[in-house]
Fold this sequence. Notes:
single chain, 197 residues, Rossmann fold, 6-stranded mixed sheet, two-stranded antiparallel sheet, 7 helices, globular
Amino acid sequence: MLAIVGESGAGKSSLLHILGTLDWASAGDVYCAQIPVGKLTDDDAADFRNREIGFVWQFHYLLPEFTAQENVAMPLLMRGMAYQEAMNKASGWLDEVGLSARRHHRAGELSGGEQQRVALARALITGPKILMADEPTGDLDNRTAELVFELIQRLHHEHRLTSLIVTHNLDFARRCDRVLRLNQGQVEEVPPQSLPS
């Protein structure tokens, strides 16, 4: 579990986007999961994202016209999986994030923490090896943010993920295995316990 920290504008989100093939580096070689992602074609990059990476953003980006279960199932439906099979898998993931009772609610009927848990289930339903989270608790109150971070930690361990988490929350960063700090175009690894309280 790797935290990426730094001042606003340091390039944390840009780094995540480049590693996740959502943006391209202007120079140099970029490897993610031992794949030279900067050399992938657009189609290969899309396939890499679809197979290897689950994304969670600060804003959940749930589709408001669909239920929580349908939102979670969407990546599988877009892959061409049969509707009922995708819905069954989505139901299992909603159980895993503690939202089985809210499966038929639309995004607007869910709290911020519930919306983010749905987004996390949607990110992981395809079985990615890598979870990339950009300020996943940034829009949440302290208690809800803590619950979401604990859920990310649990899913990280249970599903043996590699997790890259951009965060301003140094308390969460201290609880990660490794921390990278971006500062004026430089990347330095810092011991998690050395971060200020």
